[in-house]
């Protein structure tokens, strides 16, 4: 019970801080990603930059896959070339144009 109370307290503090400082954090992250992009453009990308990008994209694939599995599969295919055929069949059948009935 004590663990649950602490977990809820930490979660509540996290949500409160995110609500108060979310915009500032978002702007800081945008500047950080822009810095990584600038280093990429100039050919000065560091190992830490590459590691951050791997963590970011893998988080998008695995955590984002809970809410958006098709998008996660597409991103995984784009980055790593691992095709999940059931997803591609489902996506193409949803977006395939249908012929008008006569």
Structure description:
By secondary structure, this protein is mostly helical. It is built from five helices and no strands.
**Number of helices in the DSSP assignment:** 5
Number of strands: 0
Question: Residue ranges: pLDDT <50 for 5 or more in a row?
Answer: none
Overall SS class: mainly alpha
Overall, the morphology is extended
The total tally of domains equals 2
The radius of gyration over CA amounts to 20 Å
Residues in helices, as a percent range: over 70%
Span from first to last CA? Answer: 66 Å
Percentage of β-strand residues: under 5%
Structure summary:
With 102 residues, the protein is mainly alpha-helical. The chain has 2 domains: 1-44; 46-97, no CATH class. The chain is built from 5 helices and no strands.
Which helices and strands, and how do they pair?
Elements: H1 2-41, H2 47-62, H3 64-67, H4 69-80, H5 85-95
Helix pairs in contact: 2-4
Question: Notable features of this structure?
Answer:
single chain, mainly alpha, extended, about 100 residues
């Amino acid at each position: 019970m004590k663990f649950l109370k602490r977990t809820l307290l930490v979660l509540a503090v996290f949500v409160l801080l995110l609500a108060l400082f979310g915009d500032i954090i978002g702007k800081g992250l945008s500047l950080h990603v822009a810095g990584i992009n600038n280093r990429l453009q100039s050919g000065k990308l560091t190992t830490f930059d590459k590691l951050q990008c791997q963590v970011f994209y893998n988080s998008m694939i695995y955590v984002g896959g809970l809410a958006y599995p098709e998008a996660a599969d597409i991103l995984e295919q784009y980055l790593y070339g691992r095709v999940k055929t059931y997803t591609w069949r489902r996506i193409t059948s949803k977006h395939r144009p249908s012929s008008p009935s006569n």
